[in-house]
Amino acid sequence: MSRRFPLTLAVALMAGFIALSYEILWYRAFSFVSWGRPTVFGLLLGCYLLGVALGSSGSRRFCREDDGDASGQERSLRALAAFVFLSDVAGFLVIPILARLAQYAWFPAFGVVAVSAGLLGAVLPLVAHFGIPADDRAGQRLSYVYLANILGSAAGSFLTGFVLMDVWSTQTISAFLGATGLVMVALLFLASRPSTPRAAVGLGTVVLAGVGAVFASPVLFEHLYERLLYKELYRPEMTLADVVENRHGVIAVNHYQQVYGGGAYDGAFNVSLVDDKNFIERAFAVSAIHPNPKNVLMVGLSSGSWAQVVAHLPGVEHLTVVEINPGYLELIAKHPHVASLLKNPKVDMVIDDGRRWLLRHPERKFDVIVMNTTYHFRAHATNLLSADFMEVARAHLLPGGLHYFNTTSSDDVQRTAATLFPHAMRIVNFMAVSDSPLTFNHARWERTLREMEIDGVPALDLNVPHQRDVLARLLGMGHTIEQHAYDKYGLEGRDDLLARTAGARLVTDDNMLCEWEDLLKFPKGADL
Amino acid sequence: MRILSTLFFISGFAALVYQVVWQRTLFAIYGINIESVTVVVTAFMLGLGLGSLAGGAVSKDPRRPVVLLFAAVEATIGLFGAVSLPLFRGVGQATLTLSPPAVAFVTFLLILAPTMLMGSTLPLLVAHFTRLSKNVGRSVGLLYFINTLGSALASVVSVLVLLPRLGQGHAVHVAALLNLAAAATAFVLHQRQKGATSSLDSGDSSGETPSRTAELAR
User: Fold this and answer.
1) From CA A217, how far away is CA A171, in angstroms rounded?
2) What is the pLDDT of residue B208?
3) Which of A429, B13, B57, B63 sits CB 3.0–4.6 Å from B154 for a disulfide?
4) Across the interface, do A509 and B160 touch by the CB < 8 Å criterion?
């Protein structure tokens, strides 16, 4: 007992560490492929737990009453070693298999998770059976084993989720976890006191698996994020221009300067109204709605294009940007159109959760709060789109202040905003809301478009005919509000919007309504 | 055993609904940045681990009425669950401006009681089942299977049904009702076992020790 129990605790600890570390890695990959839809978290956890449940149930047949003698213990250890080995191999392969399946239908990859988790789930009962005698203290001893397993899991959450993800890629962390598992297999196998030929075969298998993993890893993980991003559109010649992996997530940039945060389109590196691939006119429109936006807050940075435009708007004296992922700063530094943002004395960058930052700084008030929010159907989008958040934002507005944010065309979000604020206007898919009257000032709009410069470059060069056409189109956009007919790319007044969205409901923190649209509809490959 | 297993399935189901909803509530208050996520997830795990220790310590005495203890644990989790969201939001707002370590400590304290209670149930029932089966691996395997199966089902049902249709508040109320129903059933089970023990006692004047009669009753 004295020797078995510490070994039992060590195995439970390591198994917990490996299992939770893999769970974190898998969640990152599944979240990326699904654009972070909230259903994926539940489905992944469900498959993971189902696998663990079935594994723990199946492992019971390896637990025999006569395992208490020496040969029984050795048999138990070998069964354990075999399960740890298989779970290690399966766990390592989950992400490469998901990436390959993504080209066809990635949903079956949930089954691979269940199988892998099943093998992992068999470990706890097996190790408990090996290390705990069936006496009155079984419950107490199990509590130590369970605690060791949980401490290992907590260590996995901290070490892998917090530390390793900031320094290593998904491929390297997978290799590290695979190697850790193989070391555990070898130790368990040796502890079972195998005969010399058996030891040679067993350890040889472990070493071969390790060497195989080292050589296969670059192939298995090749074009990982390209496969997960482009899915059915993926072709081997497609490569991403940049990938930033850190503990906050994964940001990918393609050769068209489009940015994908956590697998979802997140804007593009562009501040030009002429080569407009990101509807950047919505950022310029701030100056048409607010007469004097001196002090501006921006929640979310992404490519920095919006921040670059807003920082150069007439009248802006100070721009505070709160961004959750510092990885965007690395990317901005590499792109000349926006790089000056990082040195602009008018701009302060804060790395934090936007909502938390606002709640923690009730004293900070702004003329304008701008959010080019991510898709409303992504997990946690509610935190920035609910009525509760709109009240938080309202409390940070100066008199005449404007809250201006992307609804990604959600009727529920648009209606929520127009219901909460007495003054509201839709600008393309953005909502501009305020407690003070709102007008789209055509004169200011035209002046901004004609005169504004970014880093000394005019927003529009009116000597060029095509750019004069752009000016005419944008000036026309300002008048669409008077037509009282729905124009997806135009403006809409509050009354028209409330009439159009009569069937929509208010989004709250409690109902998270916007996140639960089309529960099982997952995105296809990213557009090129 | 079958009834107790079913109750443990329900317990696992309710626990995961709480976990999903509580995490979302805490993330809305403290943020979804990785620091907050790590604090919340780690606090959950530590609570479960400490609860496991407590449950293990209680379970070593065979005279302790495990089924009654299980009923009490489930009832307490259910009652806590019913008031949990307003409590979390209130405490969250009051402690938002504290330093990160202080916030981590408050988060830990907030969920310590319920997660400890959740963590205590596995060793309690393993002790009970092992006394019957004399096989630790099978007891752990069976109970872990049942409890985790409940949690697996809850994961899927939460995101496909409970949260989309009921929202966070009502989802937690469903979980609380399940806990309270499990508690009531376990209490009835305990009373029946106690009745069986009493009849054994009255028909047998051999003067067996309480631990022996308790074991017979199981």
Assistant:
1) 7
2) 36
3) B13
4) no
C-alpha of A438 from chain center: 35
Cβ-based contacts of A373 with chain B (< 8 Å): none
Within 10 A of A521 (CB to CB), how many other CB atoms are there?
10
A507 within 8 A of A382, measured Cβ to Cβ: yes
Backbone φ and ψ for A431, nearest 5 degrees, come out as -115, 135
Nearest Cβ partner for A53 among B25, B34, B148: B148
State the first-to-last Cα distance of chain A, in angstroms, to the nearest integer. Answer: 62
A457 sits in which H/E element: strand A457-458
| A39-43, A124-128, A146-150, A462-466, range with the lowest pLDDT | A124-128
- What is the average pLDDT across A143-162? 90
Question: A136 at the B interface (CB within 8 A)?
Answer: yes
**Chain A interface test: which of B5, B27, B33 (most A C-beta within 10 Å):** B33
Residues A293-328 have pLDDT tens digits of: 999 999 999 999 999 999 999 999 999 999 999 999
- Yes or no, beta carbons of A138 and B136 under 8 Å apart: yes
Name the DSSP letter for residue B64.
S
Closest CA to A126 of A201, A55, A187, A53: A55
Quick check: pTM over 0.95? Answer: no
The encoded tokens of residue A36 equal 């972070």
Q: What span, in angstroms and rounded, lies between the C-alpha atoms of B30 and A355? A: 8
| B127–A140 C-beta distance less than 8 A | yes
Query: What confidence tier does A68 reach under pLDDT thresholds 50, 70, 90?
Result: low
Residue A216 backbone zone (phi > 0: left; psi -120 to 50: alpha; other: beta) = alpha
Give contacts of B140 with chain A, Cβ < 8 Å.
56, 124-125, 128-129, 142
Distance, in Å, from the CA atom of A209 to the CA atom of A203, rounded to the nearest integer, reads: 10
Cα distances (angstroms) measured from residue B153 to each of A56, A386, A405, A467: 16, 28, 37, 58
- Which residues, listed in sequence order, are joined to residue B212 by a DSSP beta bridge? none
ipTM of the complex as predicted: 0.87
